[in-house]
Design a protein that fits this description.
- The complex is a heterodimer of chains A (153) and B (288).
- Chain A is built from 5 helices and 5 strands.
- By secondary structure, chain A is α+β, with helices and mostly antiparallel strands.
- Chain A folds into 2 domains: 76 residues, Roll (Ubiquitin-like (UB roll)), CATH 3.10.20.30; 67 residues, Orthogonal Bundle (DNA polymerase, domain 1), CATH 1.10.150.
- A 5-stranded mixed beta sheet of chain A has the order 2-1-5-3-4, covered by helices on one side.
- The longest helix of chain A has 14 residues.
- In chain B, the strands form 4 sheets. A 5-stranded antiparallel beta sheet of chain B has the order 4-5-10-6-7. Chain B has a 4-stranded antiparallel beta sheet with strand order 11-12-13-14, sandwiched between helices. In chain B, strands 1-3-2 form a 3-stranded parallel beta sheet, covered by helices on one side.
- Chain B is globular.
- By secondary structure, chain B is an alpha+beta fold.
- In chain B, a hairpin with a 4-residue loop joins strand 6 and strand 7.
- Chain B has 12 helices and 14 strands.
- In chain B, helix 10 runs antiparallel to helix 11.
- The chains are: A alpha+beta (153), B alpha+beta (288).
- At the A-B interface, strand 4 and helix 3 of A face strand 1, helix 2 and helix 6 of B.
Chain lengths: 153, 288
């Protein structure tokens, strides 16, 4: 077993874990933060995307021990005082989801994208969500939702 | 998917990592970004019993310019290579190549050293390292050595790297007139065929060309026939098109898989060689 201490959405958690425990399982099963989804489990679909020290990462491809000492943000950490994050609002207003399975990962990738490109072009938005698959929407409304959030900031 | 159990240690310095690696008697496997290794472990295609984490070793990451040579630390993630102002200015082909790897999340974690050590037959970096004639710097607990990229890649997932060695950095002389052209596998973004071309031109003549090919055979290789055909030519699109026709003609055992047949890959090698050469020519024009 190995000790892991991570700050998730501003709160520090310390736990003893098996080194082979994946970060996504740590978040979902030990911290009960089930907003981060497991999709393909093969580093492709991006449903498990969280921010690790501010950068988007696929939590199905990181062992929890690798994140020791890191700051992690999940979808649960975006809303403030009961008010949706601009990206969450954008997905609501622009109908950026149908089934919603990819949405948490899509939004976390978009957070990283907007940090790097506050006023992204459509091309930059599409490149920014290149690592996230949506099987419902055809991406149009997702792009609009991210544009909405960019315009609002 | 759950990997087999393993012990985990985090290295605090390069010397610490080398000591841990040496003490593990061959059991220790290095992990940095883990974006080649963790997927393999989840599929149980790789079952290391000990991981030594080198992701947070100071000085293993970073891009430096010294005496006209560029050095990229092995722990530098693809995102930082893709967005490096130094590389964009002096050797944009490296930044361009990094920007084509995987997707943003992969580029935030995957490292240059990890990609080179893993040596996936379809990885992007090996092609550009060949085109730049890069030096790959290695350290063990007892020695340091330098291997040229053209000697480093040896076979499928096989490189000149001993179990007790760590890649510390790559070094190369920057080339502005260089470009990477890639036929993407649409889902993974790996190269079905990827070609990096670098041109050395003076007084209106191509003095030498170096061309690296990835994706097509067991490991990245130089297209020496095309290089020889270009030497002494005028740097024109026509000359490049003529030479590119030869690309891959002397290669055997071209890869064929569900993404592209052997015949298709063979047909694409000249196409992407020409595009890479045209890209290098375009940078030559901008430069002069």
């Amino acid at each position: 077993m190995a000790q892991v201490s991570v700050t998730v959405n501003g709160k520090t958690h310390t736990a003893n874990v098996e080194p082979r425990l994946l970060l996504v399982h740590f978040l979902r099963e030990q911290l009960n933060l089930t907003g981060t989804h497991i999709g393909c489990d093969t580093s492709q679909c991006g449903a498990c995307t969280v921010l690790v020290d501010g950068r988007s990462a696929k939590s199905c491809t990181i062992f929890a021990v690798q994140a020791d000492g890191s700051e992690i943000t999940t979808i649960e950490g975006l809303a403030r005082d009961g008010r949706l994050h601009p990206l969450q609002e954008g997905f609501w207003e622009e109908h950026g989801l149908q089934c919603g399975y990819c949405t948490p990962g899509m939004i976390m990738s978009a957070v990283d994208l907007l940090n790097e490109h506050p006023s992204p072009t459509e091309r930059e938005i599409r490149d920014g969500i290149d690592g996230n698959f949506c099987r419902c929407t055809g991406y149009e409304h997702i792009v609009n939702a991210i544009q909405y959030a960019a315009n609002k900031r | 998917m759950i990997p087999t159990a393993f012990d985990y240690q985090r290295a605090t310095s390069l010397d610490d990592a080398l000591a841990k690696l040496s003490a593990s008697n061959g059991a220790g496997k290095l992990i940095a970004g883990g974006h080649s290794l963790v997927p393999l472990m989840k599929l149980r295609l790789s079952e290391p019993t000990m991981l030594i984490d080198i992701a947070r070793i100071p000085d293993l990451a970073g891009i430096r310019e010294q005496d006209g040579t560029l050095e990229i630390g092995a722990g530098t993630v693809h995102h930082d290579v893709a967005t490096s102002p130094v590389l964009r200015q002096h050797c944009p082909v490296v930044a361009d190549t990094a920007a084509t790897i995987g997707d943003p999340q992969v580029r935030n974690r995957g490292t240059l050293g990890g990609s080179l050590a893993h040596a996936d037959p379809a990885a992007d970096y090996p092609a550009v390292m060949l085109a730049l004639d890069a030096e790959i710097h290695l350290r063990s607990s007892t020695a340091a050595r330098v291997v040229l990229a053209r000697d480093f890649f040896q076979n499928v997932l096989t490189v000149d790297l001993a179990p007790d060695e760590i890649i510390t950095a790559v070094r190369f002389a920057p080339v502005r007139a260089a470009s990477y052209a890639k036929l993407y596998q649409r889902a993974s973004r790996f190269a079905i065929v990827g070609v990096a071309a670098a041109l050395d031109v003076s007084d209106g003549v191509i003095r030498s060309a170096r061309i690296g090919l990835t994706g097509a055979v067991s490991h990245a290789v130089r297209l020496t026939t095309v290089e020889a055909a270009l030497a002494g030519c005028e740097p024109t699109s026509r000359a490049c098109a003529e030479a590119a026709r030869l690309a891959g003609s002397d290669l055997e055992d071209i890869n064929g898989d569900i993404h592209a047949s052997e015949t298709y890959r063979r047909a694409m090698i000249p196409v992407f060689t020409r595009r890479a050469l045209d890209g290098a020519l375009a940078r030559l024009t901008v430069q002069s």
